[in-house]
Amino acid sequence: MSIKLTVSEIAGITGGQLLCGDPGTIIDNIQYDSRAVRENTLFVPIKGARVDAHMFIDECLKKAAATLTMYDAPEGAEKPYIKVDNTLAALQKLAADYRRRFSLHLVGVTGSVGKTSTKEMIAAALSKGFDLMKTEGNKNSQIGMPMTMFEIENKNEVAVIEMGMSEFGEMERLCDVAAPDIAVMTNIGTAHIENLGTQENIMSEKFKITNHFKKNSVLFLNGDDKLLKTLHGKQPFRTVTFGIESDNDYYADNIQTVGLSCEFVCHSKNGDRRFTVPTLGIHGVRNALAAIAVSEYLGLDDDTIQKGLDTYKNAPMRQQLHDMGNYILIDDSYNASPEAMVSSIDVLKSVSKGRTIAVLADMLELGEKGEQLHYNVGQYAAKAGIDTVITVGTLAKSIAKGAKDGGTTDTSSFMSNDEAYSYLCSKLSDGCAVLIKGSRGMHTDEIVSKLLSNSNK
Question: Which domain holds residue 162?
């Protein structure tokens, strides 16, 4: 935090009651993680489904200056206790108040797939033209995103913030905190459809990222997405589309893979320009188009944007490419959805100089449509010409069936990562490319770790 607050001010912002302690106590750090408290910290104990962090207050106050609480203060307490109805809501109020003390541009990024990689691409493109703050990792939740607000400093000119949601009402609360004046929507997929019911509901909820837009705000939309395309030109604020299809405001063609980079021509009303981005796959080009569009809106020229794009790196655990000597390994084991699997299959095809092997595990939280969505991924893998499809888990058996029905003759299904790993090793050959992908709960990173360990040996 670059702004100091008194305990009295914090009580006022949160609508809380100061139960005890000095109202003039200075706070310059806010933490919900008991391990991160230090001097002058306000501890915010969050009551979760399994753990109520109020149990850590006594230990935290050995270092921290004050605490929020949903209960009464213990008898004899000396340091400030501020009682609030809900500590998470209070944290969000503090973050909203803090954010509004700054006049910087704030770019909010949301979507079913690719939020983190798009956020990283936009931040890279802007990095050579502005003093920038961005979300670290994927802190896009009801806790993580508000905590990100406290990282804004007076020197920052632009912030690029990732905003995620999985249930009704979550985006509205995040928007009340961050109040972005620029927003990017990457796509409307099937992630969290179990909670939200339909893709139309997902789009409606994500669109609430614009709740605090003003007349001069801008919404950047993936115009290749059939649902997002329907929003273009129908809002009381400006909308700009980006994508591969030529009817977008920013579109790309002449896409070429050069080593581990993509070169393409970007077309827009500003002319035709060639850019290079150090990542692979059509989704990487689409992310770059979003970054170029946002950067040009904020006034950067092509050279400055390209210098920024040159610094782009995939976020940790997102689609890491490893040269294993005799084959290429694509580690995309962090998470999975049908749309993300399709994108990863495209990358697998683009890097391969020989056989292609896709190791695909269950995609979770897809609800009653899960079996069909897995089957569709298998059909896509077959259509893309993937040579070998190996699946892990019960749902992923439908991927294998879809691939086999689509014409892939080499398909195998397993119930454990160990079994899949052993079979995969028997399939490795010189010049092949291997993709590992599945939902986090499937722990397909175990397969990656074994491959990397054997390579090191």
Answer: 102-309
